[in-house]
Amino acid sequence: MKLIRFGKAGEEKPGIEMENGKRIDVSAFGEDYTEDFFNAKGISRLTEWLKGNQGSCPVVHNNERLGPPLKRPSKLICIGLNYSDHAAESNMQLPLEPIIFFKATSAISGPDDDVVIPRNSVKTDWEVELAVVIGKKASYVEEKEAMDHVAGYMLHNDYSERAFQLE
């Protein structure tokens, strides 16, 4: 199941895109895609709800704006230099330990939304990243249990102003 959120910026509603590409509004389910939704087995509950309600869900037209697929996540944790080719093109060595940093959750946007490049930017760099959505609270998770905490995946357009960051 592909979770979508659609509508004007700041007013998005929850929906899903089905395997055939059809998009439907699931607002009547009564929950948006928040951390509480994922933590309370929201995907399973939504799947069950759809069995009896899918036919009455309004269609979301393909020209409708898609917004961020999650509503107000508490954090966006990034791993730097996690791709060897990117490290090489940046003339940087692969780190021995992960480089962990945070970004504002306002950096999560819809797939066709504009990004704001900082004023006086001269070295804006961008990458398409795979984002992992953690679906339940996790601390000191054993590797063999890690996938139990993954709710899904999404693409993230990551960009940085390298002059501000590195110089």
Describe the structure.
This protein is α+β, with helices and mostly antiparallel strands and 167 residues long. The chain folds into two domains: 2-60, no CATH class; 76-166, Fumarylacetoacetate hydrolase, domain 2 (Alpha-Beta Complex). The chain has four helices and eight strands, in the order βββααββαβββα. The longest helix has 12 residues, at 42-53. It is globular and about 55 Å long. It starts with a strand and ends with a helix.
Question: Can you summarize this structure?
Answer:
With 167 residues, this protein is an alpha+beta fold.
Topology:
Blueprint: E1 2-6, E2 13-17, E3 23-25, H1 35-39, H2 42-53, E4 59-60, E5 76-80, H3 84-89, E6 99-103, E7 124-134, E8 150-161, H4 162-166
Antiparallel strand pairs: 1-2, 2-3, 3-4, 5-6, 7-8
Strand content: 25-35%
Radius of gyration: 18 Å
Distance between the termini: 43 Å
**Total tally of structural domains:** 2
**How would a textbook summarize the main sheet?**
4 strands, antiparallel
Low-confidence runs: none
Task: Return the string of H and E elements.
Answer: EEEHHEEHEEEH
Q: What would you call the structural class?
A: alpha+beta
Into which percent range does the helicity of residues fall? 10-25%
Determine the CATH superfamily of the largest domain: Fumarylacetoacetase-like, C-terminal domain
Primary descriptors:
alpha+beta, Fumarylacetoacetate hydrolase, domain 2, 167 residues
